[in-house]
Amino acid sequence: MTESKPPEPHDHPEDVTQHVGYLLKRAQAALRGAMDKVLREHGLTVPQYATLELLALHPGMSNADLARATFVTRQSGNVVLRGLQEAGLIARPDTADHGRARPARLTEDGHARLAAVQTAVYAVEQRMVEAIPPKRMAALLTDLGHIATALEE
Fold first, then answer.
1. CA nearest 27: which of 123, 117, 131, 119?
2. Contact (CB, 8 A) for 90 and 106
3. How far apart are CA 75 and CA 87, in angstroms?
4. HTH marR-type domain: which residues (predicted)?
5. What pLDDT, on a 0 to 100 scale, did the predictor assign at position 153?
6. In sequence order, what are the residues at sequence separation of 6 or more whose Cβ sits closer than 8 angstroms to the Cβ of residue 126?
């Protein structure tokens, strides 16, 4: 039986601004700032927009599922859903058929608002993607997936 050696520790640059984690956070903050700017013009926040996108793809998602998928707590997810419902962008039953889940769906106004904002949000993503040489995009996406999986374990 052969024993495997533990991986060598990663050499960290002395300058923290060159660490992988720092650069990932910087990119995430820049993306969030750019999205906040375009979404503000449409009266939406990033979690609200993400919720609309997800409900367009998967009508009937529960608050818990939406919160997980939009990276917010269940309590914050409920606040997002209430705000979208008050704005007439989503509809939820007043009571749950079973358990506590009240499945949400987009209203006509919700579909219209989502369509109106998608062009602006997709333009932000396009600006981000254009900074990466096309031949490296597939590897970047794979690497980001590996990073997320390694940290979720």
1. 131
2. yes
3. 19
4. 17-149
5. 78
6. none
Domain boundaries, the chain: 42-152
In contact, 42 and 120? CB cutoff 8 Å: yes
Rounded distance between C-alpha atoms, residue 48 and residue 33, angstroms: 15
**Residues 116, 42 contacting (CB under 8 angstroms):** yes
Architecture of the domain whose range is 42-152: Orthogonal Bundle (1.10)
Please report the DSSP string for 117-139 in residue order: HHHHHHHHHHHHHTTS-HHHHHH
Beta bridge partners of 119: none
Distance of alpha carbon 48 from the chain centroid: 10
Which amino acid, residue 125?
A: E
